User: Which sequence fits this backbone?
């Protein structure tokens, strides 16, 4: 480990707290191995999770450390607009998953989202989505791993290789031992630790800044720009806000395509809900998660805004930081930690960041192991084998996934520009997949051929648009509808075009080809599926009741911060 | 989420919060009597003491409420 040019120094108490965390997550992995015997245990945690456990795990799998530091940095860069990725870019989709979509995933008893596509469409559609998901998952895991190690190098002076191997070996051990059961157990623990370690920053920050009003006044005075603390009122024009985005990009690109695509079809998060013990728990899990998701800006966005108000230095983009040595936007959360937290608290804050990284990585590798085993290995290589054999394959896949992720991390170290490329690639697969799943689930006329060609054409459209702007930057005015659009805005509009292409091709091909008989769609499609009645439940136990409350609160907070 | 004989996840969470709370609170109390040369912003609030104490109490509640002998 080197100790030069770091932002923070950990005391021995802090190191004890970090070491204790590693010991506990490994201990949980070893403890749970005895309870992980069947494929159902390893890949779906025995389908025995309560709504709370599945919900917190659903949230934690998404709360990677890059989520924490990256979005705190985005809040410093773009202001409160970054909150859209937590509110309109998450809450409606999570409620939709819980209220409308979950019954179909749950009743079909599928092990995965590609597995659902096999039941609804055909084998080629499953293969296409499984291969692209597996590829993207390990790639993203490796890139996140490198980014995390890079942050640890800048913040703590830790060697990049040390951070990569230490954290990934820990994740590999506990997921290999206990599968999804162990991943979920640790994700819930990590979720609590993230809140325990990060919540103190906004509390102390608001005290220093003089409350919300004091913070808003300080930001406006320092930047001579009042737009940083408005959520919607600056979105009428691309050039009126720090992100260079229009409300259509937020509503249609982010809230509809990206958000619904991610929260309802990305198996990384959906797998957690599939582990619920009954249909009501599976429906409640995303609704419980949505409450916490709505609160996450308190520990992510607020520290970024407080950084704008109280930090004496000016943070800069990553590219500039690499040249000048100034701290980058992404360092805002560690800088706020260093500002307020003494020995012990600092260790807890760093533990929260490490926990965030490990929960995200565990989510990736456990989802990868399931999709590889059930959607690639089983149908393509060995259809008939014992349950124990598939559990064994799942364990080896976990190790393989971690090793490939480590390899990707080292690859990114050599070619840093891959980061931008793959971030964009990630959105390529999410947008069309959402089109394929939603049409399949909601329209019984959608045919197997339409599922495959819609998915393929949407993915290709994304790729073509991305390359078009890369080769000719002036094409941005067509792809993102404005030459002023920034990278995030471009992603939103590209996703929208990709989904629209998928939708148009799916409808067109459906009208030209033969649909599946209705008898084969039972349990898979709206209108031909009998949703099991949950019995005479009191109103306060019904998912729709809680989803309505969350929806009302969601509207209120958007109006408050308009 | 329990299989027969499985310790609740909430017990593990309670235990780690209990230990973390004790360590952080103790470190905060130590700093109260031995202030460091370089002071942090808002160090007069002694956040380590009360935040550590809060985590300790939450951890204590969960450790007792979900102790293995009760959940088995």
Assistant:
């Amino acid at each position: 480990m080197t100790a030069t040019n770091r932002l923070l120094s950990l005391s021995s108490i802090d190191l004890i707290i970090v070491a204790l965390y590693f010991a506990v997550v490994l201990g949980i992995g070893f403890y749970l191995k005895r309870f992980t015997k069947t494929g159902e245990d390893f890949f779906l945690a025995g389908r025995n999770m309560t709504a709370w456990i599945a919900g917190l795990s659903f949230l934690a799998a998404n709360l990677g450390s890059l989520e924490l530091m990256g979005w705190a940095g985005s809040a410093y860069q773009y202001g409160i607009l970054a909150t859209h990725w937590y509110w309109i870019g998450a809450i409606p989709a999570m409620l939709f998953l819980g209220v409308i979509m979950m019954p179909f995933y749950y009743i079909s008893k599928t092990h995965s989202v590609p597995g659902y596509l096999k039941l609804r469409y055909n084998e080629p559609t499953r293969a296409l989505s499984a291969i692209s998901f597996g590829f993207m998952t390990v790639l993203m895991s490796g890139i996140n791993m490198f980014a995390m190690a890079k942050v640890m190098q800048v913040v703590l002076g830790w060697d990049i290789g040390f951070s990569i191997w230490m954290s990934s070996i820990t994740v590999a051990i506990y997921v290999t031992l206990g599968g999804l059961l162990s991943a979920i157990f640790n994700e819930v623990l990590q979720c609590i630790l993230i809140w325990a370690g990060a919540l103190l920053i906004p509390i102390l920050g608001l005290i220093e800044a003089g409350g919300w009003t004091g913070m808003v006044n300080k930001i406006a005075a320092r930047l001579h720009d009042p737009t940083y603390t408005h959520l919607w009122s600056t979105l009428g024009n691309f050039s009126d806000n720090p992100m260079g985005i229009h409300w259509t990009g937020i509503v249609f690109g982010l809230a509809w395509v990206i958000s619904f695509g991610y929260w309802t079809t990305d198996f990384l998060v959906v797998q957690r809900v599939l582990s619920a013990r009954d249909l009501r728990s599976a429906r409640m899990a995303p609704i419980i998660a949505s409450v916490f998701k709505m609160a996450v800006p308190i520990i992510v966005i607020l520290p970024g805004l407080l950084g704008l108000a109280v930090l004496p230095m000016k943070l800069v983009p990553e590219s500039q930081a690499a040249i000048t040595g100034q701290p980058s936007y992404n360092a805002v959360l560690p800088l706020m930690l260093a500002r307020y937290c003494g020995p012990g608290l600092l260790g807890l804050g760093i533990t929260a960041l490490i926990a965030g990284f490990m929960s995200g990585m565990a989510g990736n590798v456990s989802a990868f192991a399931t999709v590889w085993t059930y959607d690639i290995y089983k149908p393509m290589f060995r259809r008939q084998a014992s349950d124990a054999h598939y559990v064994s394959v799942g364990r080896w896949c976990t190790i393989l996934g971690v090793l490939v992720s480590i390899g990707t991390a080292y690859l990114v170290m050599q070619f840093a520009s891959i980061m931008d490329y793959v971030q964009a690639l990630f959105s390529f697969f999410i947008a069309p997949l959402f089109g394929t799943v939603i049409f399949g689930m909601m329209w019984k006329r959608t045919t197997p051929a339409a599922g495959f060609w819609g998915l393929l054409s949407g993915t290709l459209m994304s790729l073509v648009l991305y390359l078009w702007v890369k080769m000719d930057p002036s094409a941005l005015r067509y792809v993102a509808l404005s030459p002023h659009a920034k990278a995030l805005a471009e992603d939103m509009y590209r996703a929208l075009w990709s989904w629209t292409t998928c939708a148009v091709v799916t409808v067109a091909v459906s009208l030209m080809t033969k649909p599946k008989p209705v008898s084969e769609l039972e349990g898979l499609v709206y209108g031909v599926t009998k949703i099991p009645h949950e019995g005479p439940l009191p109103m306060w136990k019904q998912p729709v009741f809680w989803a309505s409350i969350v929806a009302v609160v969601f509207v209120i907070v958007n109006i408050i911060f308009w | 989420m329990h299989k027969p004989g499985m310790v609740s996840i909430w017990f593990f969470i309670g235990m780690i919060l209990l230990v973390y709370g004790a360590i952080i609170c103790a470190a905060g109390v130590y700093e109260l009597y031995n202030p460091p040369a370089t002071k942090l912003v808002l160090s007069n609030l002694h956040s380590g003491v009360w935040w550590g104490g809060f985590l300790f109490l939450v951890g204590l509640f969960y450790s007792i409420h979900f102790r293995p002998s009760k959940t088995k």
The domain at 12-560 of chain A is CATH 1.20.1730.10 (Sodium/glucose cotransporter).
